[in-house]
Design goal:
A: about 425 residues, alpha/beta, 2 domains, disordered C terminus, B: mainly alpha, 9 helices, about 0% strand, globular
Protein backbone atom coordinates (compact mmCIF):
# COMPACT_ATOMS: atom_id res chain seq x y z
CA UNK A 1 0.00 0.00 0.00
CA UNK A 2 1.25 3.42 -0.85
CA UNK A 3 0.98 6.56 1.22
CA UNK A 4 -1.99 8.68 0.15
CA UNK A 5 -0.35 11.97 1.20
CA UNK A 6 1.29 14.27 0.27
CA UNK A 7 -0.41 14.29 -3.11
CA UNK A 8 2.06 13.50 -5.85
CA UNK A 9 0.55 16.01 -8.25
CA UNK A 10 0.94 18.86 -5.78
CA UNK A 11 4.71 18.55 -5.52
CA UNK A 12 4.79 21.72 -7.52
CA UNK A 13 2.59 23.70 -9.85
CA UNK A 14 2.08 22.61 -13.41
CA UNK A 15 0.48 24.29 -16.36
CA UNK A 16 -1.08 20.96 -17.32
CA UNK A 17 -3.19 21.13 -14.19
CA UNK A 18 -3.99 24.80 -13.61
CA UNK A 19 -5.91 24.03 -10.43
CA UNK A 20 -2.58 23.30 -8.73
CA UNK A 21 -1.92 27.05 -8.84
CA UNK A 22 -5.21 27.58 -7.07
CA UNK A 23 -4.35 25.17 -4.25
CA UNK A 24 -1.06 26.94 -3.52
CA UNK A 25 -2.77 30.31 -3.80
CA UNK A 26 -5.42 29.18 -1.30
CA UNK A 27 -2.76 27.99 1.14
CA UNK A 28 -1.01 31.33 0.69
CA UNK A 29 -4.30 33.11 1.26
CA UNK A 30 -4.78 31.31 4.56
CA UNK A 31 -1.22 32.16 5.50
CA UNK A 32 -1.56 35.88 4.82
CA UNK A 33 -5.05 36.05 6.31
CA UNK A 34 -4.06 34.45 9.61
CA UNK A 35 -0.90 36.58 9.87
CA UNK A 36 -3.08 39.65 9.54
CA UNK A 37 -5.65 38.46 12.08
CA UNK A 38 -2.89 37.72 14.58
CA UNK A 39 -1.63 41.28 14.30
CA UNK A 40 1.54 40.52 12.39
CA UNK A 41 0.91 43.39 10.02
CA UNK A 42 1.72 45.77 12.85
CA UNK A 43 5.42 46.36 13.41
CA UNK A 44 4.91 47.67 16.95
CA UNK A 45 3.24 44.45 17.96
CA UNK A 46 6.13 42.47 16.45
CA UNK A 47 8.86 44.58 18.03
CA UNK A 48 7.19 44.44 21.47
CA UNK A 49 8.34 40.81 21.58
CA UNK A 50 11.91 41.93 22.06
CA UNK A 51 11.14 44.22 24.99
CA UNK A 52 9.19 41.54 26.87
CA UNK A 53 6.01 43.62 26.86
CA UNK A 54 3.88 41.49 24.61
CA UNK A 55 5.10 38.13 23.44
CA UNK A 56 2.64 37.64 20.60
CA UNK A 57 5.37 36.65 18.11
CA UNK A 58 6.56 33.80 20.26
CA UNK A 59 3.06 32.61 21.10
CA UNK A 60 1.86 32.61 17.50
CA UNK A 61 5.04 31.08 16.09
CA UNK A 62 5.39 28.31 18.60
CA UNK A 63 1.64 27.80 18.68
CA UNK A 64 1.72 27.26 14.92
CA UNK A 65 4.78 25.01 15.05
CA UNK A 66 3.43 22.70 17.76
CA UNK A 67 -0.04 22.55 16.19
CA UNK A 68 1.30 21.64 12.77
CA UNK A 69 3.95 19.33 14.21
CA UNK A 70 1.60 17.28 16.35
CA UNK A 71 -0.90 16.88 13.50
CA UNK A 72 1.83 15.98 10.99
CA UNK A 73 3.43 13.38 13.21
CA UNK A 74 0.06 11.85 14.04
CA UNK A 75 -0.55 11.43 10.31
CA UNK A 76 2.97 10.12 9.77
CA UNK A 77 2.57 7.65 12.63
CA UNK A 78 -0.75 6.42 11.24
CA UNK A 79 0.91 5.79 7.87
CA UNK A 80 -1.27 8.33 6.07
CA UNK A 81 1.50 10.82 5.40
CA UNK A 82 4.92 9.95 4.04
CA UNK A 83 7.60 11.78 6.06
CA UNK A 84 10.19 10.89 3.42
CA UNK A 85 8.24 12.76 0.76
CA UNK A 86 7.98 15.92 2.84
CA UNK A 87 10.43 18.73 2.27
CA UNK A 88 12.59 18.99 5.38
CA UNK A 89 14.87 21.99 5.08
CA UNK A 90 18.41 20.63 4.82
CA UNK A 91 20.71 21.71 7.60
CA UNK A 92 23.43 24.18 6.71
CA UNK A 93 24.41 24.94 10.27
CA UNK A 94 26.81 27.87 9.92
CA UNK A 95 25.20 29.77 7.08
CA UNK A 96 21.88 29.19 8.85
CA UNK A 97 23.12 30.56 12.15
CA UNK A 98 24.90 33.55 10.60
CA UNK A 99 21.94 34.29 8.35
CA UNK A 100 19.66 33.96 11.37
CA UNK A 101 21.68 36.44 13.41
CA UNK A 102 21.64 38.90 10.50
CA UNK A 103 17.88 38.44 10.21
CA UNK A 104 17.48 39.06 13.93
CA UNK A 105 19.24 42.40 13.46
CA UNK A 106 16.98 43.19 10.50
CA UNK A 107 13.95 42.19 12.55
CA UNK A 108 14.60 44.58 15.42
CA UNK A 109 15.72 47.44 13.15
CA UNK A 110 12.96 47.05 10.57
CA UNK A 111 10.18 45.59 12.68
CA UNK A 112 9.10 42.80 10.33
CA UNK A 113 10.10 39.55 8.79
CA UNK A 114 9.52 39.00 5.05
CA UNK A 115 6.13 37.26 5.32
CA UNK A 116 4.68 39.73 7.80
CA UNK A 117 5.94 42.72 5.83
CA UNK A 118 3.91 41.59 2.81
CA UNK A 119 0.75 41.54 4.91
CA UNK A 120 1.61 44.89 6.42
CA UNK A 121 2.24 46.48 3.04
CA UNK A 122 -1.06 45.13 1.71
CA UNK A 123 -2.99 46.73 4.55
CA UNK A 124 -1.44 50.09 3.74
CA UNK A 125 1.19 50.32 6.44
CA UNK A 126 3.84 52.60 4.96
CA UNK A 127 6.64 51.21 7.12
CA UNK A 128 5.68 47.78 5.78
CA UNK A 129 5.95 49.03 2.21
CA UNK A 130 9.43 50.43 2.90
CA UNK A 131 10.43 47.15 4.51
CA UNK A 132 9.32 45.17 1.45
CA UNK A 133 11.30 47.48 -0.81
CA UNK A 134 14.37 47.11 1.40
CA UNK A 135 13.89 43.35 1.45
CA UNK A 136 13.83 43.22 -2.35
CA UNK A 137 17.09 45.16 -2.48
CA UNK A 138 18.65 42.86 0.13
CA UNK A 139 17.61 39.76 -1.78
CA UNK A 140 19.01 41.28 -4.97
CA UNK A 141 22.30 42.11 -3.23
CA UNK A 142 22.60 38.56 -1.95
CA UNK A 143 22.23 37.13 -5.43
CA UNK A 144 24.94 39.48 -6.66
CA UNK A 145 27.41 38.88 -3.83
CA UNK A 146 27.02 35.18 -3.07
CA UNK A 147 29.45 34.17 -5.87
CA UNK A 148 32.16 35.85 -3.78
CA UNK A 149 31.81 33.24 -1.04
CA UNK A 150 29.91 30.53 -2.82
CA UNK A 151 32.07 27.70 -1.50
CA UNK A 152 31.46 28.63 2.12
CA UNK A 153 27.76 29.14 1.48
CA UNK A 154 27.40 25.74 -0.22
CA UNK A 155 29.27 23.76 2.41
CA UNK A 156 29.16 25.58 5.76
CA UNK A 157 28.00 23.06 8.32
CA UNK A 158 26.12 21.03 5.76
CA UNK A 159 24.48 18.03 7.37
CA UNK A 160 21.81 17.14 4.84
CA UNK A 161 18.25 16.20 5.74
CA UNK A 162 19.02 15.96 9.42
CA UNK A 163 15.97 15.71 11.66
CA UNK A 164 15.92 16.09 15.41
CA UNK A 165 14.83 12.44 15.93
CA UNK A 166 17.78 11.30 13.78
CA UNK A 167 20.15 13.63 15.56
CA UNK A 168 19.14 12.64 19.08
CA UNK A 169 18.40 9.04 18.21
CA UNK A 170 14.96 9.35 19.81
CA UNK A 171 11.58 8.28 18.41
CA UNK A 172 9.74 11.13 16.70
CA UNK A 173 6.85 10.92 19.18
CA UNK A 174 9.19 11.53 22.11
CA UNK A 175 10.77 14.52 20.38
CA UNK A 176 7.32 15.92 19.60
CA UNK A 177 6.30 15.59 23.25
CA UNK A 178 9.51 17.22 24.49
CA UNK A 179 9.04 20.16 22.11
CA UNK A 180 5.45 20.60 23.21
CA UNK A 181 6.51 20.57 26.87
CA UNK A 182 9.16 23.17 26.00
CA UNK A 183 6.65 25.32 24.11
CA UNK A 184 4.12 25.20 26.96
CA UNK A 185 6.85 26.19 29.39
CA UNK A 186 7.74 29.12 27.13
CA UNK A 187 4.07 30.15 26.92
CA UNK A 188 3.90 30.12 30.69
CA UNK A 189 7.11 32.13 30.91
CA UNK A 190 5.80 34.62 28.35
CA UNK A 191 2.66 35.18 30.36
CA UNK A 192 4.74 35.81 33.47
CA UNK A 193 6.83 38.38 31.58
CA UNK A 194 3.74 40.06 30.21
CA UNK A 195 2.30 40.21 33.70
CA UNK A 196 5.44 41.64 35.30
CA UNK A 197 6.96 43.85 32.57
CA UNK A 198 3.97 44.44 30.33
CA UNK A 199 1.67 44.97 33.37
CA UNK A 200 -1.10 42.87 31.88
CA UNK A 201 -4.02 41.47 33.78
CA UNK A 202 -3.67 37.77 33.10
CA UNK A 203 -6.90 36.86 34.89
CA UNK A 204 -8.77 38.00 31.79
CA UNK A 205 -7.02 35.48 29.59
CA UNK A 206 -9.39 32.83 28.26
CA UNK A 207 -9.52 29.64 30.24
CA UNK A 208 -9.77 27.71 27.00
CA UNK A 209 -6.01 27.97 26.57
CA UNK A 210 -5.50 25.57 29.47
CA UNK A 211 -7.73 22.98 27.83
CA UNK A 212 -5.80 23.55 24.62
CA UNK A 213 -2.56 22.79 26.44
CA UNK A 214 -4.00 19.57 27.83
CA UNK A 215 -5.28 18.56 24.39
CA UNK A 216 -1.85 19.18 22.85
CA UNK A 217 -0.23 16.98 25.43
CA UNK A 218 -2.80 14.24 24.93
CA UNK A 219 -2.21 14.15 21.17
CA UNK A 220 1.55 14.23 21.72
CA UNK A 221 1.31 11.17 23.97
CA UNK A 222 -0.77 9.64 21.21
CA UNK A 223 2.12 10.06 18.77
CA UNK A 224 4.40 8.22 21.19
CA UNK A 225 1.89 5.37 21.47
CA UNK A 226 1.40 5.10 17.70
CA UNK A 227 5.14 5.25 17.11
CA UNK A 228 6.81 5.84 13.79
CA UNK A 229 6.58 3.32 11.00
CA UNK A 230 9.53 0.94 11.16
CA UNK A 231 11.94 0.54 8.28
CA UNK A 232 10.20 -2.71 7.33
CA UNK A 233 6.81 -0.99 7.25
CA UNK A 234 8.18 1.85 5.18
CA UNK A 235 9.75 -0.63 2.78
CA UNK A 236 6.40 -2.42 2.42
CA UNK A 237 4.79 0.85 1.45
CA UNK A 238 7.32 1.63 -1.25
CA UNK A 239 6.19 0.82 -4.77
CA UNK A 240 7.92 0.91 -8.11
CA UNK A 241 6.34 1.25 -11.52
CA UNK A 242 7.94 -0.62 -14.39
CA UNK A 243 6.94 -1.12 -17.99
CA UNK A 244 7.12 -4.80 -18.73
CA UNK A 245 6.92 -6.78 -21.93
CA UNK A 246 6.59 -5.66 -25.52
CA UNK A 247 3.37 -3.76 -24.88
CA UNK A 248 5.09 -1.88 -22.11
CA UNK A 249 2.25 -2.23 -19.65
CA UNK A 250 2.86 -0.32 -16.43
CA UNK A 251 3.01 -2.66 -13.49
CA UNK A 252 3.40 -1.71 -9.87
CA UNK A 253 5.87 -3.74 -7.87
CA UNK A 254 6.48 -3.82 -4.18
CA UNK A 255 10.09 -3.73 -3.05
CA UNK A 256 10.22 -7.48 -2.48
CA UNK A 257 8.57 -8.18 -5.82
CA UNK A 258 11.12 -5.97 -7.50
CA UNK A 259 13.91 -7.98 -5.89
CA UNK A 260 12.27 -11.29 -6.77
CA UNK A 261 11.79 -10.25 -10.39
CA UNK A 262 15.44 -9.23 -10.58
CA UNK A 263 14.50 -5.67 -11.47
CA UNK A 264 16.70 -4.14 -8.79
CA UNK A 265 19.82 -6.05 -9.77
CA UNK A 266 21.89 -4.47 -12.49
CA UNK A 267 24.43 -6.39 -14.54
CA UNK A 268 28.10 -5.34 -14.39
CA UNK A 269 27.79 -4.29 -18.02
CA UNK A 270 24.97 -1.84 -17.28
CA UNK A 271 26.70 -0.50 -14.16
CA UNK A 272 29.78 0.09 -16.28
CA UNK A 273 27.75 1.74 -18.99
CA UNK A 274 26.03 4.03 -16.45
CA UNK A 275 29.39 5.27 -15.18
CA UNK A 276 29.90 6.87 -18.57
CA UNK A 277 26.42 8.33 -18.88
CA UNK A 278 26.92 12.07 -18.69
CA UNK A 279 23.29 12.61 -17.80
CA UNK A 280 23.60 10.63 -14.59
CA UNK A 281 25.69 10.86 -11.47
CA UNK A 282 26.82 7.42 -10.43
CA UNK A 283 27.54 6.69 -6.79
CA UNK A 284 29.08 3.33 -5.96
CA UNK A 285 28.49 2.23 -2.38
CA UNK A 286 30.69 -0.67 -1.35
CA UNK A 287 29.08 -2.18 1.75
CA UNK A 288 31.76 -4.77 2.52
CA UNK A 289 34.13 -4.72 5.50
CA UNK A 290 37.11 -2.42 5.10
CA UNK A 291 39.57 -5.30 4.66
CA UNK A 292 37.79 -6.57 1.54
CA UNK A 293 37.47 -3.03 0.26
CA UNK A 294 41.19 -2.43 0.64
CA UNK A 295 41.94 -5.64 -1.16
CA UNK A 296 39.89 -4.79 -4.24
CA UNK A 297 37.23 -2.21 -5.02
CA UNK A 298 35.85 -0.42 -8.03
CA UNK A 299 37.26 2.92 -9.02
CA UNK A 300 35.53 5.73 -7.08
CA UNK A 301 33.60 3.30 -4.90
CA UNK A 302 32.86 4.59 -1.40
CA UNK A 303 33.29 2.19 1.48
CA UNK A 304 30.24 2.27 3.74
CA UNK A 305 30.10 -1.03 5.65
CA UNK A 306 26.59 -2.43 5.95
CA UNK A 307 26.22 -1.50 9.62
CA UNK A 308 26.89 2.15 8.81
CA UNK A 309 24.44 2.43 5.92
CA UNK A 310 21.66 4.00 8.07
CA UNK A 311 24.00 6.80 9.14
CA UNK A 312 24.59 8.04 5.59
CA UNK A 313 20.90 8.13 4.65
CA UNK A 314 20.33 11.80 5.64
CA UNK A 315 23.23 12.87 3.42
CA UNK A 316 22.09 10.80 0.48
CA UNK A 317 18.59 12.21 0.73
CA UNK A 318 19.51 15.82 0.32
CA UNK A 319 23.05 16.08 -0.89
CA UNK A 320 22.74 14.61 -4.32
CA UNK A 321 21.01 15.79 -7.44
CA UNK A 322 17.82 14.12 -8.58
CA UNK A 323 19.70 12.35 -11.37
CA UNK A 324 21.91 10.37 -9.01
CA UNK A 325 21.93 6.58 -9.32
CA UNK A 326 23.25 4.51 -6.44
CA UNK A 327 24.76 1.06 -6.83
CA UNK A 328 25.23 -0.96 -3.68
CA UNK A 329 27.66 -3.83 -3.90
CA UNK A 330 29.10 -6.58 -1.77
CA UNK A 331 31.03 -9.73 -2.69
CA UNK A 332 27.77 -11.46 -3.57
CA UNK A 333 24.30 -10.02 -3.28
CA UNK A 334 23.28 -10.82 0.29
CA UNK A 335 24.76 -7.79 2.04
CA UNK A 336 24.07 -5.51 -0.89
CA UNK A 337 20.41 -6.55 -0.81
CA UNK A 338 20.24 -5.81 2.92
CA UNK A 339 21.72 -2.36 2.26
CA UNK A 340 19.26 -1.87 -0.60
CA UNK A 341 16.33 -2.60 1.75
CA UNK A 342 17.60 -0.03 4.26
CA UNK A 343 18.17 2.67 1.65
CA UNK A 344 14.89 2.11 -0.19
CA UNK A 345 12.95 1.86 3.07
CA UNK A 346 14.48 5.18 4.11
CA UNK A 347 13.19 6.81 0.97
CA UNK A 348 16.39 7.02 -1.09
CA UNK A 349 15.50 6.83 -4.77
CA UNK A 350 17.30 5.15 -7.66
CA UNK A 351 19.14 2.49 -5.67
CA UNK A 352 20.28 -0.65 -7.46
CA UNK A 353 22.28 -3.74 -6.60
CA UNK A 354 25.34 -4.86 -8.52
CA UNK A 355 24.19 -8.21 -9.86
CA UNK A 356 26.28 -11.05 -8.48
CA UNK A 357 28.41 -8.62 -6.53
CA UNK A 358 32.11 -8.06 -7.02
CA UNK A 359 32.68 -11.74 -7.67
CA UNK A 360 30.51 -11.37 -10.75
CA UNK A 361 32.25 -8.13 -11.69
CA UNK A 362 35.62 -9.85 -11.65
CA UNK A 363 34.21 -12.79 -13.58
CA UNK A 364 32.97 -10.32 -16.20
CA UNK A 365 35.88 -7.88 -16.46
CA UNK A 366 38.60 -9.98 -14.87
CA UNK A 367 40.31 -10.92 -18.10
CA UNK A 368 42.06 -7.56 -17.77
CA UNK A 369 43.78 -8.88 -14.64
CA UNK A 370 45.30 -12.26 -15.32
CA UNK A 371 47.05 -12.14 -11.96
CA UNK A 372 43.72 -12.39 -10.13
CA UNK A 373 43.06 -16.11 -10.05
CA UNK A 374 39.88 -17.93 -9.02
CA UNK A 375 39.96 -19.70 -5.69
CA UNK A 376 38.68 -23.22 -5.80
CA UNK A 377 36.18 -24.48 -3.30
CA UNK A 378 34.91 -21.20 -1.80
CA UNK A 379 31.19 -21.62 -1.45
CA UNK A 380 30.35 -19.54 1.59
CA UNK A 381 28.29 -16.52 0.60
CA UNK A 382 29.82 -13.06 0.77
CA UNK A 383 33.36 -14.34 0.35
CA UNK A 384 35.67 -13.19 -2.41
CA UNK A 385 36.16 -16.15 -4.71
CA UNK A 386 39.43 -14.87 -6.09
CA UNK A 387 43.02 -14.76 -4.98
CA UNK A 388 44.69 -11.39 -5.17
CA UNK A 389 48.44 -11.10 -5.47
CA UNK A 390 48.54 -7.79 -3.57
CA UNK A 391 46.34 -5.35 -1.69
CA UNK A 392 45.94 -2.84 -4.46
CA UNK A 393 42.50 -1.35 -3.73
CA UNK A 394 41.24 0.12 -6.97
CA UNK A 395 44.54 -0.11 -8.85
CA UNK A 396 43.72 -3.35 -10.61
CA UNK A 397 42.91 -2.87 -14.26
CA UNK A 398 39.38 -4.28 -13.88
CA UNK A 399 38.53 -1.70 -11.21
CA UNK A 400 38.21 0.75 -14.02
CA UNK A 401 37.91 -1.28 -17.21
CA UNK A 402 39.36 0.27 -20.32
CA UNK A 403 36.56 2.17 -22.06
CA UNK A 404 37.99 1.54 -25.51
CA UNK A 405 38.15 -2.17 -25.03
CA UNK A 406 34.71 -2.47 -23.42
CA UNK A 407 32.94 0.12 -25.49
CA UNK A 408 30.36 -2.19 -26.93
CA UNK A 409 28.55 -4.14 -24.26
CA UNK A 410 25.12 -5.62 -24.60
CA UNK A 411 22.72 -5.76 -21.72
CA UNK A 412 19.05 -5.69 -20.90
CA UNK A 413 18.55 -2.24 -19.34
CA UNK A 414 17.10 -2.35 -15.85
CA UNK A 415 17.61 1.18 -14.54
CA UNK A 416 14.61 3.48 -14.59
CA UNK A 417 15.28 6.92 -13.23
CA UNK A 418 12.79 8.10 -10.62
CA UNK A 419 12.88 11.80 -10.02
CA UNK A 420 13.37 12.97 -6.50
CA UNK A 421 11.95 16.09 -4.98
CA UNK A 422 14.20 18.88 -6.16
CA UNK A 423 16.68 20.31 -3.69
CA UNK A 424 15.42 23.81 -4.16
CA UNK A 425 11.87 22.81 -3.30
CA UNK A 426 11.90 24.47 0.09
CA UNK A 427 9.60 27.17 1.24
CA UNK A 428 12.04 30.00 0.76
CA UNK A 429 14.47 28.00 -1.33
CA UNK B 1 -53.05 59.88 -8.22
CA UNK B 2 -49.64 59.09 -7.12
CA UNK B 3 -46.50 60.09 -8.76
CA UNK B 4 -43.99 57.37 -8.93
CA UNK B 5 -40.83 58.74 -7.53
CA UNK B 6 -37.69 57.27 -8.83
CA UNK B 7 -35.40 56.23 -5.99
CA UNK B 8 -32.34 58.38 -6.06
CA UNK B 9 -29.47 56.48 -7.56
CA UNK B 10 -26.58 56.32 -5.17
CA UNK B 11 -23.16 55.65 -6.53
CA UNK B 12 -21.26 52.94 -4.74
CA UNK B 13 -18.93 54.46 -2.18
CA UNK B 14 -15.64 52.65 -2.76
CA UNK B 15 -13.78 54.59 -0.16
CA UNK B 16 -16.22 53.67 2.56
CA UNK B 17 -16.31 50.08 1.37
CA UNK B 18 -12.56 49.68 1.83
CA UNK B 19 -11.61 52.09 4.54
CA UNK B 20 -14.58 52.79 6.81
CA UNK B 21 -15.28 49.41 8.23
CA UNK B 22 -15.47 49.07 12.01
CA UNK B 23 -12.06 48.35 13.42
CA UNK B 24 -11.80 45.08 15.29
CA UNK B 25 -9.25 43.71 17.70
CA UNK B 26 -6.62 41.19 16.73
CA UNK B 27 -7.42 37.61 17.62
CA UNK B 28 -5.89 35.98 20.66
CA UNK B 29 -2.26 34.91 19.99
CA UNK B 30 -2.92 31.28 20.86
CA UNK B 31 -5.88 31.19 18.48
CA UNK B 32 -3.68 32.82 15.84
CA UNK B 33 -0.99 30.22 16.42
CA UNK B 34 -3.52 27.40 16.21
CA UNK B 35 -4.98 28.70 12.94
CA UNK B 36 -1.55 29.31 11.43
CA UNK B 37 -0.63 25.78 12.50
CA UNK B 38 -3.65 24.42 10.63
CA UNK B 39 -2.61 26.27 7.48
CA UNK B 40 0.94 24.98 7.83
CA UNK B 41 -0.33 21.45 8.41
CA UNK B 42 -2.58 21.64 5.35
CA UNK B 43 0.35 22.85 3.24
CA UNK B 44 2.58 19.95 4.28
CA UNK B 45 -0.19 17.36 4.26
CA UNK B 46 -1.42 18.15 0.76
CA UNK B 47 1.72 19.27 -1.03
CA UNK B 48 4.72 18.13 1.01
CA UNK B 49 5.93 21.72 1.04
CA UNK B 50 5.66 24.22 3.85
CA UNK B 51 4.96 27.93 3.68
CA UNK B 52 7.24 30.62 2.33
CA UNK B 53 7.55 34.23 1.36
CA UNK B 54 11.07 35.45 0.72
CA UNK B 55 11.76 32.70 -1.81
CA UNK B 56 8.89 34.03 -3.91
CA UNK B 57 10.23 37.57 -3.77
CA UNK B 58 13.63 36.18 -4.72
CA UNK B 59 12.22 34.50 -7.79
CA UNK B 60 10.41 37.67 -8.83
CA UNK B 61 13.66 39.63 -8.66
CA UNK B 62 15.51 36.97 -10.60
CA UNK B 63 12.75 37.06 -13.22
CA UNK B 64 13.31 40.79 -13.66
CA UNK B 65 17.07 40.28 -13.83
CA UNK B 66 16.54 37.58 -16.41
CA UNK B 67 14.67 40.01 -18.63
CA UNK B 68 17.00 42.97 -18.08
CA UNK B 69 20.35 41.17 -18.09
CA UNK B 70 20.03 37.54 -19.20
CA UNK B 71 23.76 37.22 -19.88
CA UNK B 72 24.51 38.33 -16.33
CA UNK B 73 22.11 35.72 -14.94
CA UNK B 74 23.81 33.04 -16.99
CA UNK B 75 27.20 33.91 -15.49
CA UNK B 76 26.06 33.73 -11.86
CA UNK B 77 25.61 30.14 -10.66
CA UNK B 78 23.19 31.13 -7.92
CA UNK B 79 20.89 32.91 -10.34
CA UNK B 80 21.48 30.31 -13.02
CA UNK B 81 19.86 27.66 -10.85
CA UNK B 82 16.57 29.53 -10.97
CA UNK B 83 16.64 31.24 -14.37
CA UNK B 84 19.34 29.56 -16.48
CA UNK B 85 18.57 28.68 -20.08
CA UNK B 86 14.86 28.40 -20.72
CA UNK B 87 14.02 28.02 -17.03
CA UNK B 88 11.32 30.39 -15.89
CA UNK B 89 12.00 31.50 -12.32
CA UNK B 90 8.30 32.16 -11.83
CA UNK B 91 7.35 28.58 -12.61
CA UNK B 92 7.25 27.52 -8.98
CA UNK B 93 4.60 26.89 -6.36
CA UNK B 94 5.95 29.69 -4.18
CA UNK B 95 4.70 32.29 -6.67
CA UNK B 96 0.96 31.57 -6.37
CA UNK B 97 1.52 31.20 -2.63
CA UNK B 98 2.99 34.70 -2.33
CA UNK B 99 0.14 36.19 -4.34
CA UNK B 100 -2.32 34.29 -2.17
CA UNK B 101 -0.63 35.63 0.95
CA UNK B 102 -0.82 39.20 -0.37
CA UNK B 103 -4.53 38.80 -1.03
CA UNK B 104 -5.12 37.05 2.30
CA UNK B 105 -3.43 39.85 4.18
CA UNK B 106 -5.48 42.42 2.32
CA UNK B 107 -8.78 40.64 2.97
CA UNK B 108 -7.92 40.18 6.64
CA UNK B 109 -7.19 43.88 6.97
CA UNK B 110 -10.31 44.88 5.05
CA UNK B 111 -12.64 42.61 6.99
CA UNK B 112 -11.47 43.94 10.31
CA UNK B 113 -11.24 47.60 9.40
CA UNK B 114 -7.48 47.71 9.52
CA UNK B 115 -6.86 49.01 6.00
CA UNK B 116 -5.48 52.50 5.74
CA UNK B 117 -2.25 54.33 5.20
CA UNK B 118 -0.37 54.75 8.44
CA UNK B 119 3.08 54.25 9.89
CA UNK B 120 3.58 52.22 13.03
CA UNK B 121 6.52 53.51 15.04
CA UNK B 122 7.80 54.21 18.50
CA UNK B 123 6.91 57.62 19.99
CA UNK B 124 10.47 58.94 20.02
CA UNK B 125 11.30 58.85 16.32
CA UNK B 126 10.00 60.72 13.32
CA UNK B 127 8.01 59.04 10.59
CA UNK B 128 10.89 59.55 8.18
CA UNK B 129 13.32 57.83 10.52
CA UNK B 130 10.93 54.94 10.82
CA UNK B 131 10.71 54.64 7.05
CA UNK B 132 14.49 54.70 6.71
CA UNK B 133 14.85 52.09 9.44
CA UNK B 134 12.17 49.91 7.87
CA UNK B 135 14.02 50.05 4.56
CA UNK B 136 17.38 49.29 6.21
CA UNK B 137 15.88 46.48 8.29
CA UNK B 138 14.25 45.02 5.20
CA UNK B 139 17.53 45.10 3.35
CA UNK B 140 19.38 43.35 6.18
CA UNK B 141 16.57 40.85 6.58
CA UNK B 142 16.41 40.10 2.87
CA UNK B 143 20.14 39.47 2.72
CA UNK B 144 20.13 37.29 5.84
CA UNK B 145 17.11 35.32 4.68
CA UNK B 146 18.81 34.30 1.47
CA UNK B 147 22.02 33.44 3.27
CA UNK B 148 20.09 31.22 5.69
CA UNK B 149 18.14 29.70 2.76
CA UNK B 150 14.84 30.74 4.21
CA UNK B 151 12.96 33.29 6.20
CA UNK B 152 10.96 33.08 9.37
CA UNK B 153 8.11 31.34 7.57
CA UNK B 154 9.95 29.13 5.11
CA UNK B 155 12.70 27.94 7.41
CA UNK B 156 11.83 28.57 11.07
CA UNK B 157 8.12 27.83 10.88
CA UNK B 158 8.06 25.16 8.18
CA UNK B 159 11.35 23.49 9.05
CA UNK B 160 10.56 23.73 12.76
CA UNK B 161 7.30 21.81 12.39
CA UNK B 162 8.97 18.95 10.49
CA UNK B 163 11.86 18.87 12.99
CA UNK B 164 14.75 20.02 10.81
CA UNK B 165 17.82 20.52 13.01
CA UNK B 166 19.02 23.46 10.91
CA UNK B 167 15.63 25.17 11.16
CA UNK B 168 15.70 25.12 14.95
CA UNK B 169 19.28 26.39 15.06
CA UNK B 170 18.23 29.16 12.69
CA UNK B 171 15.16 30.06 14.74
CA UNK B 172 17.14 30.51 17.93
CA UNK B 173 19.70 32.58 16.00
CA UNK B 174 17.01 34.99 14.81
CA UNK B 175 15.71 35.49 18.34
CA UNK B 176 19.28 35.75 19.66
CA UNK B 177 20.23 38.38 17.06
CA UNK B 178 17.13 40.45 17.76
CA UNK B 179 17.36 40.23 21.55
CA UNK B 180 21.08 41.05 21.49
CA UNK B 181 20.47 44.27 19.61
CA UNK B 182 17.08 45.22 21.10
CA UNK B 183 18.48 47.20 24.01
CA UNK B 184 20.67 49.36 21.77
CA UNK B 185 17.87 50.33 19.40
CA UNK B 186 15.20 50.72 22.07
CA UNK B 187 14.70 54.33 21.01
CA UNK B 188 13.14 53.07 17.81
CA UNK B 189 10.32 51.33 19.60
CA UNK B 190 9.84 52.48 23.18
Amino acid sequence: MEYPFPLQILQTVSADAPWTYLIFALIGFGFGYVLELAGFGNSKKLAAQFYFRELTVLKVMFGAIVTAMVLLFTMIGLGILNYEAIWVNPTYLWSGILGGLIMGVGFIVGGFCPGTSLVSAMTGKIDGIFFVLGGLVGIFLFGETVPLYDYWWQTAGFLGRLTIPDWLGLPAGVVVTIIIAMALFMFWGSEQLERIIGKRDMSREPKLRLYGAVALFAVAFGTILIGSPSLEQKLERTTFTREIGIEGASIKFSAEELLANRLAQVSPAEVYHTMFDNGLITVLLDVRPEADYNLYHLNNALNVPLAQIPTVVPQLQSKHSPNTVYFVMSNDEVDATAAWRILVGSGVKNVYILEGGLNNWIAFFGEDDPEITPLAGVNTPEQLRYDFPAVLGSRYASCYPNPQKWEKLEFEPIIKLELQRDQSGGGCG
Amino acid sequence: MTVATKPQKKSFDWRAFFLNRPKKDYIHPYLGGFLLGLVLFAAFFLTGNGLGASGGLNRMIVAVQDVVAPAHVDSNPYLLKMAGGDKNPLDDWIIPMVFGALLGGFVGGWQNGRLGFETNKGPQISTRTRWAMAFAGGLIMGYGARMARGCTSGLALSGGAVLSVGAWAFMFSVFAGAYALAYFVRKLWL
